[in-house]
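Data deposition worksheet. Section B asks for the primary sequence of the deposited chain exactly as it was used as input, without tags or linkers unless they were present during the calculation. Section C holds the resulting structure in token form. Section D is free text for depositor observations; keep each observation to a single sentence. Incomplete worksheets are returned to the depositor.
Section A, Depositor: J.P.
Section B:
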Amino acid sequence: MHVLGLVLSTPFIELAALFLSIVWMIRDQTDKVRPLLVIALTVNLFYGILLSIFMGAEGSLLPWKYDAILLRLDQALGISTGSLAAPLQGAWRVPLGTIYQLMVPMMICWFLVARRAALGGPLVLAYVAELVTGPLLYAIVPGCGPAYAMGANWMHAAPPRPVLMRLGGMPNAFPSLHVATALVLVLFAPGRWSRAVAVAFFTATVMATISTGEHYVIDLVPGLAFACYAAEVGLRRFWWALPQLGVAVLWCLIVRFEFGWLISHPAVLRSLAALTVIAAVATVARHWSLHRHRALEVTTGSDEIPYSAPEQPPPVHMARP
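Section C:
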């Protein structure tokens, strides 16, 4: 079990991915994209170290966490995190835990999938938007997750009073960047089979975030809007990205400052959650339609083709009298 835990740990997976990418680069030194992948993985490795330092400092600066409040918001939604997680233990525990740890390798694989449809560059930009903006949202509603806040018996813990809790863990629960990244993969799925794989991975990631006790159900909702924001940034559709980011930030602000009102008005909370989910589904449908139309236009596999360049109107020839 110790060996399995080591193999499935995030540092081991990142180092293994970096090693394999170097081998892949050496096998074909004429491909100019392969060195970029090695550079990206190297940057990701150092980013992970810096993020741990930043999040650790953020946890020290923000010792009061919103975990009890997030758990009560789940209750107001009519969904118990523990009741959802309990059936996902036993035989499900190891596969879902593995899914949770495979996010970075999946992001790398999806870059290769997207690259074939001239979406590699936009996907990388979406990753960057997530990695830069996500930690800032964590600071608005700092939370650690039920497994850290409620202890080993978190699945059967009684709902606490909605008050701040003093915890020493890193605030990386609200919104869920795991769910956001999994949805980004869905948004950048260019074909029928890739969409099936992306949707399956997204579903498994949702189950994994709950079963491992890393997130509350309410964390997943703003994660959907955040994913749509990152995807729009990737496509350089910034005017489309701003409203999506606004939804994610609005969730953070209303949970931070008006959580009592949300808990006492569960119908409003459920309506806001439903609208966010519907908007995310509509964004997925719109992106898939964009990819389908783009696939009819793209004749090469180059990422240099501008994805969302505006079409120019045809020249108008004035007839001479």
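Section D:
The radius of gyration is 21 Å.
Confidence is low (pLDDT under 50) at residues 299-306, 308-314.
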